[in-house]
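Lecture notes, unit on protein representations.

Consider one protein chain, 542 amino acids long.
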Amino acid sequence: MENITKNNQYNIGYICTSLQCAIGNADKTAMRWISSDMKCIDYSFRDLEHQSNKLANALQSLGLSKGDIIFTLLPKIPEQFFVLLGALKLQLIASPLFANFGEEAIFDRMHDACAKILVTKKVFLKKIEKIKNRLPNLKYVIVIDSESDLPSDVLSYPILMENAQSIFETPLTGKDVPSLLHYTSGSTGKPKGVLHVHGGIVVINQTTKEILGLKENDKYWCTADQGWVTGTSYGMIGPWSLGITQIHFSGQYGLEAWFTILEKEKISVWYTAPTALRMLMKEDAAKFKKFNLKELRHISSVGEPLNPEVIHWSRMVLGKDIYDTWFMTETGAIMIANRSGFDVKPGSMGKPIEGVEAAIITDNGVLAQSDQQGILCLKAGWASMFVAYLNNEQAYRQKFNDGYYYSGDVAFMDKEGYYWFSGRKDDVINTAGHLVGPFEVESALLEIEEVKEAAVIGAPDKILYEKIVAFIKLKPECIYNKELELKIRIYIANKISTIAVPQDIIAVESVPKTKSGKIMRRVLKAQYLDQDIGDLSTMEEF
């Protein structure tokens, strides 16, 4: 690590490209991009260096400077990385959006951040046109697949890049300079912007090497989208800071495609999500026999708890262990993990990484005993710790107490120091590894003409871990039917994202609330799961 941050240069873009070229990796393949139809294009570290340099120069020519915020709304394509790395070299704050976000989800994040630039594709321009007049700080939209400029503020990426120089002198960047901005959902209110700094690369590099076990000649594949923290920390920063070749696949999940990639590309380390693994479990075990995975040395998972059944399945069908890891958008890097050399306890998150102090703290604010549940907390101060919720200092302060960061995850530690996830303290829904705030979905539901009241919960699901369940009270003159159900699903998909669409929609006579008007989601969840609904003394009506 000493060589990576030499001369106190912590710039993520520089370390992942310029430094790699300087230490002899210029001609090494940094990325093999595989399209959905399985065509491959290789990019060397020199290619990453030149393309990100050109992007940095292009953005600088548009008047952008240190601290300005740039968003990307892109699928899994090479330009995503060129833009993010180039923006980081220029000391901009980069915020990649999930490409399936609807217009309102995009607006909420870009408006909160006062974004100046958006880089996207033509296919997304209709969404952007609907919200652009409500984004007064947005100066330019850059379209990567337009050969010509459109309106004066919609620019062609190819033209910008053609006119830009491929040499860029990255300014000396201290560890406290802001770098990436990811948004996470809360149980109430709008999504919060989680701000990270360039110094986080220290822990990301460390955990990529020590927890994921990457070595110099490995081929690595992280299936996460860059719209989420895993996709930037471990689908970009970690492997490239180590000079590792990684695979990026633009296609969707599919056993045949995924395992063809694992075999053909000779993947040695694979980082994926429990939802994908649970989907693979549903397949006929005989289908896996034709694939030779002898090069696959290590599988890790992240995003949601890994069921013990998945580990047992992998051992039996793939002949491999799966190592669960735990971290959050706010932590920036893996904090607790299973790894090679440790006995894997199926269902456990593992143990804290070196340099991280974890603790279970009870509701009374005291350290829990072994096997006693409480909030999973981390001693503040690790290098990849987020430094702010953008424009929300109060919410940021509330996450810390007595020197500890409170994660909101309920867990316990056993007598051997292994940590075990139990659930969330709040109502945030973890569906297929994506965190969805019920408030955001409820707000969108209330915009639908027929809906008078709405409440949203998460319920256990064998594949998704949690599914979204919506309860709606209709206006008196309205009737719930298949047409209305379809209307609701389409509206939520367009407004927020496809991942926020409820799996179940239930019409109810009333939505239970406290006397102060707060939705009692626990009551709805208990009813849905046929469990005891508990104390109702604070309820307005039942």
